[in-house]
Amino acid sequence: MHPTVDPSTTKYNESLAASTLPDRMRVINLPRVESITSDTKPSTWLSSLVEGQKPHVKEYVSRIRTQYEMNPDSPRLAGFVFDTFATGLKDVSNEFGIPWYVFSAAGAAFIGSMLHLTALHDEQGVDITEITNSEDELEIPSLANPIPAKLVPSTVFEKYSLTTFLVHARLLTEAKGILINTFLELESYAVNSLSHGKTPPVYPVGPIVKHSGVGSDPLSDESNNSRDIMGWLDDQPPWGSFKENQVKEIAFALERSGHRFLWSLRKPSQNGKMKSPSEYENFQSILPQGFLDRTAKIGKVIGWAPQVEILSHSASLRFGVPIATWPLYAEQRFNAFQKVIEVGLAFEIKIDYRKDFYGDTEIIVSSDDILKAIKNVMEQDSEIRKKVKEMSRISEKTLVAGGSSFSSLGRLIEDMVENMS
């Protein structure tokens, strides 16, 4: 689906269609929903996109059905897998009498939180907006530790976004199963918690990460400095969108740390506008005076960054990179709590930092706090760094024969086949 508000998404979809994929995989580019523009309200554009695509999806599925009826040897439609935000297309699936599943890019613990908060709202009449603005702690079945209420997803803090949150959560319970981009060894507590109650079967199938060569990054063709970035990394030893005032605090911390850094710094979109971050024409205008000159030998400030390629580079310990969490919006605070407290795989910068998805906040995180996190994350013999490297090693094994996600995917296929019969 091509949301016209963000051309970079269209470029990514087109690159997928043009890339070399296995013969049994096809990328279908659906017609645009022309009624959606940059002026469409943020709270409604996604539902409008899905609704507008229903006739197009129905038409394509009808063709598949016709092909199968004419030639029984052609592929048979076994089920739909919808992204969490595209579950509105279930109407098409139900019309054809075909099972539908959900794929979640968020983790198992977050899925559990969605279901729990929705149950509080629907079954106990709890006003979630009051809970999440309190200093209370919540007991969520998918978390081993109580979580401060203010760390739950920001979408439940406001009435209009809470409605969307609840709709998506309720739809999860209607699915035939939920595929999650996680793996058992990372979220064993959360995955096991979802095997009880009203939750459909859960299939951990991750970690799913885009690799170069299959669907190039949406901005890669526009970014002529990608080769320069990777060249700069080649010269480095192994290492591990804010407003102006916050950018300066980050710069002070990086300079004082003395560590090598690659800083992807982009201009935030305007409040209330559904646009991707843009590039600064001149970094000098936003950074402290003389910062670029003083850090020229140890740092590089860039705009857009080829994230997967950078994390895959030998200078970043190949995906075993320890991180310092600084959540901004949506479910990021929840994710930060999980990584720092639940599984102990990250350091904290400001775990309760809050920023509206389309706005900003006046809270400024000091350079001292940022510097402390940098020093922690760069400590070579820290327990967290060791745990991250071990989890990275484990994650590689989950997707091969005998691995937990490999087996989970096999179970999904068996269940889909059984549902067809």
TrEMBL record:
Known pathway: Pigment biosynthesis; anthocyanin biosynthesis
Organism domain of life: Eukaryota
Swiss-Prot/TrEMBL keywords: Glycosyltransferase, Transferase
Gene Ontology terms describing biological process: anthocyanin-containing compound biosynthetic process
GO molecular function: anthocyanidin 3-O-glucosyltransferase activity; UDP-glucosyltransferase activity
EC class of the enzyme, as a word: transferase
Catalytic activity: an anthocyanidin + UDP-alpha-D-glucose + H(+) = an anthocyanidin 3-O-beta-D-glucoside + UDP
InterPro entries (UniProt xref): UDP-glycosyltransf_plant (IPR050481), UDP_glucos_trans (IPR002213), UDP_glycos_trans_CS (IPR035595)
EC number: 2.4.1.-
Keyword Glycosyltransferase: yes
CDD domains, A to Z: GT1_Gtf-like (cd03784)
Pfam family, one: UDPGT
Family note: Belongs to the UDP-glycosyltransferase family.
PANTHER family in the record: GLYCOSYLTRANSFERASE
UniProt protein name: Glycosyltransferase
